[in-house]
Amino acid sequence: MPRHTSRSLPIQRGHAVAEDLFAAAPKPEPHSLTELNEEMAAAGPMVEGGKRAVFGEGPIGAALALVGEQPGDQEDLQGHPFVGPAGQLLDRAMAAAGIDRSRSYVTNAVKHFKFQQRGKRRIHEKPTMGEVKHYRWWLFKELEFVHPKLVVALGGTAAYALSGKSVTIGKSRGPAEFGEFHGFITVHPSAMLRMRDHDEREAAFLDFVRDLKGARKLAAQSH
Questions:
Q1: Where on the phi/psi map is residue 87: left (φ > 0), alpha (ψ -120 to 50), or beta?
Q2: 1 assigned to some structural domain
Q3: Does residue 126 have a pLDDT over 60?
Q4: Helix-helix angle 136-146:33-43, to 10 degrees
Q5: pLDDT of 18-75, one tens digit each?
């Protein structure tokens, strides 16, 4: 079971992303996931546009923890992770892979919805590397409390947050190590939503399900 303290989080030495790993650490340090979430809520949005923190959900000790990029419009409105279109696709893929979402932990690298207002619509805006870096302490502390057997990075932003370096999904897709956490890198479900070709989208979905099955098997093998 991976264990970290505020002084033993996995730092990728030689990468600037590690420099501010502890910058957002609340004082005093929280001793439970509930306290951590309370500190996050009190800290306020760290990205432009965010209205409130959307916390991770799932049981402590879950075999799998899935980490996405950031909450979207529906997540911000409802206060729950992965409840919008990408979340619905994730649910379908998890079910196809034999993974019970209610027994998994689901969260995001960035805890607030970053967007631009266009009329009545709030358009998702990708967080910068600096913004992702600012949230790293929170993410790793969260995973410390959940202590999953395997952490799944959904997309490049999550992989960057977990590894501390830029990751090309096509080259890095598959098993990975995130400090002391066993990991797995795959695509974010929103990538499939942007595909216009039906056959391409269906093929990508099957590949995604295959990845999740692989992650499930690796988690089952972890001790």
A1: alpha
A2: no
A3: yes
A4: 160
A5: 444 445 666 678 999 999 999 988 887 877 777 789 999 999 999 999 999 999 999 9
Residue labelled with tokens 């410390």: 144
Burial (CB < 10 A; 0-12, 13-18, 19+), residue 15, is middle
pLDDT tens digits for 66-106?
999 999 999 999 999 999 999 999 999 999 999 999 999 99
Residue 193 lies in a domain: yes
Contact (CB, 8 A) for 101 and 65: no
C-alpha 94/C-alpha 89 separation (Å) is: 9
Alpha carbon distance, N-terminus to C-terminus of the chain:
7
Q: What's the CA gap between 149 and 152, in Å, rounded?
A: 10
Could you tell me the CATH number of the domain that includes residue 101?
Answer: 3.40.470.10
